Queue: 2 jobs
Job 1
Amino acid sequence: MSQLEQTVSRYRSLRLSAAADELTNLLAEAEANEMSYLSFADRLAEHELIQRQDKRIRRNRKMAAFPAEKRLEGFDYRHQTTITKRQVNALLDFQFIDERNNLVFIGPPGVGKTHLAIGIGYKAVEAGYRVLFRNALDLVEELELAEMKGELKKRVSALAKYDLLVIDELGYLPM
């Protein structure tokens, strides 16, 4: 086993898989740019951290269960008269999450409430928040089922672990 293979194996044992995967390329880059040992070590650690962050974002985005990929960058504000891009961007400091405040979009069908909610949810995931998207009717059914099984407290506790719970179609619940 070569020294490179042994080093890659050790990185994998330490669960530094991104560094292991990129070691050969980073060694070539370090040699070509005559990097110091410390710069090389920093570059390797930076690569591992970036890959872990990307993986965490992908995992949390999947766990959020968004019904579609809706980005704020794709939202058309030209036909929107009740909220501006500036107002939406002001929400992206996520102070409302940190302060445990609710954010409610109210309006007729088709004006972009769901798009905005998902878009803000995506940004929250990218900022490191745990997010869950649920349709209101599905959430009610989920809670009713948990109650029938005697697991309501457990289910509510699980929901409370999320930083942001996006509940869509709240106005369409049957009374």
Job 2
Amino acid sequence: MTVPSGPPGLEALAASAAEFARGAGEILLGLFGKRVEVSYKDKNQSDPVSEADRASQAYLQERILARYPGHGVLGEEKPKDAEAARAEGAQAVPEHLWVLDPLDGTKNFLNGLAVWGCSVGVLRRGRPLAGAIFTPEPGMTAGTIYRAWAGGGAFRGDYPIQVAPEEKPTAKRISSLPGSYLTQFRPTGPLKASGLGEVRAPGSITYELALVARGGLHYALFGAPSIWDVAAGVLLVKEAGGLPLVRRPGADLWDPFEAFYPEEDSPKSLGLARKWRRSILVGNPS
């Protein structure tokens, strides 16, 4: 077992994130495969929110604020009450913000597919400090915890992880693209010659980021994830030796990811922070 390094304060923060993600994961595992209450965020019923999503977020929010009362929490699921949702959106963004995806891959979860995750990320003025991801794991009834903190490395349980070592796309590897990309784009030139490997769309950004960090996926492209989808995962990939790239708004240019927003241009409210959406590519830095 490798002894972690990095600032001790951040290591403790990552340990808390892992503890909270584990607790939420236990709640989710207890509901997985069972009939749960489901509602939808859209008229087409394509964006479900379930009893499991809300139970996980309620647990996380309660535990975080009990231990870190001076911090803020931004979860994917808004309060059901419209007035409470407006009040939450108007809150100022604190220096330390916990960003939660209580259940990423809800459709998979509801259909009995064990490809989903729970993401707990901690930001300081928009920059990821620590994070943890829980995923179900074949052969492990308790699931798996991934954790990372800035400068301390990335871990699956107590063991360090690294991104895939191959510098170029290779036919023997698995990569991930959004479902729409699979039908709209066809590899040409060097990509066609070397092959993209098996290209898949697993349906859970959190799960995919964990797989990239441990070397299971060579790379992954996310078209327009929300801040809660990637708050923990981008740090996990970076600390595993990978490179997250973020697309500039309105341009076909990609920059190394450093923060969700610069300190001098930080959102004034949680409602504005909630609107963050950018394309992200993660994988081997070469």
